[in-house]
């Protein structure tokens, strides 16, 4: 299932489980001082879902996402490939994704290892271009490639969300 393209609808078969929120806690994660605080701090939320079918607890720590959950709330969990992706509030009919990065959660798309290999390769070409001739276009790739990778990840997550939305709310 590790492909560059968004998976077909038959590869994304969601499973629905009724659950109850047993615990939720929101807090801020602080990190470092000065400039590090702006880059590495963020909102965290601990949530524990208890399945109604077998009573199994599923604890989660969510990064940089704010879910409107409270203890005792009844929800319907959506799992794809045995990974929790979203929940539906049966009272309002609203749904919300549990993660901001579906690509990483579902282990799809280009892996980070390939991205690092490409970045290191172009960084080395940048260093070598300085030795053998300034002004080569390869010297711009190490700066351009991370923007391309970021754009790819955003577009992939957007298309993946739209594909999953067709299961939740229909075409």
Structure explained in plain terms:
By secondary structure, the protein is α+β, with helices and mostly antiparallel strands. The chain is built from four helices and six strands, in the order βαβββββααα. Strands 3-2-1-4-5-6 form a six-stranded antiparallel beta sheet. α3 runs antiparallel to α4 (141-169).
Low-confidence stretches: none
**Structural class estimated from helices and strands:** alpha+beta
Return Rg in Å: 21 Å
Helix-strand string: EHEEEEEHHH
Shape: elongated
Order of strands across the main sheet: 3-2-1-4-5-6
End-to-end distance: 23 Å
Strand content: 25-35%
Could you write a compact summary of the structure shown?
The protein has four helices and six strands; from the N terminus they run βαβββββααα. By secondary structure, it is α+β, with helices and mostly antiparallel strands.
Which SSEs are present, and which pair or pack?
Blueprint: E1 14-29, H1 35-40, E2 42-51, E3 57-63, E4 74-80, E5 83-88, E6 95-97, H2 102-105, H3 112-132, H4 141-169
Antiparallel strand pairs: 1-2, 1-4, 2-3, 4-5, 5-6
Helix pairs in contact: 3-4
Which key features would you list for this structure?
single chain; 171 residues; alpha+beta; 6-stranded antiparallel beta sheet; 4 helices; 35% helix; elongated
């Amino acid at each position: 299932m590790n492909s560059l393209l968004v998976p077909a609808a038959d590869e994304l078969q969601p499973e629905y489980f009724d659950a109850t929120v047993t615990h939720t806690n929101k807090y801020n994660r602080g990190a470092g001082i000065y400039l590090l605080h702006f880059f590495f701090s963020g909102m965290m939320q601990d949530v524990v879902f208890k399945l109604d079918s077998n009573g199994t607890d599923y604890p989660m720590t969510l990064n940089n996402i704010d879910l409107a959950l409270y203890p005792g709330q009844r929800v319907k969990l959506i799992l794809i490939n045995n990974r929790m992706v979203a929940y539906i509030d049966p009272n309002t009919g609203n749904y919300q994704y549990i993660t901001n990065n579906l690509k990483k959660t579902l282990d799809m798309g280009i892996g980070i290892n390939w991205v690092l290999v490409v970045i290191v390769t172009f960084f080395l070409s940048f260093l070598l271009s300085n030795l053998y001739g300034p002004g080569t276009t390869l010297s711009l790739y190490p700066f351009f490639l991370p923007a391309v990778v970021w754009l790819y990840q955003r577009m992939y997550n957007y298309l993946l969300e739209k594909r999953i939305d067709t299961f939740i709310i229909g075409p």
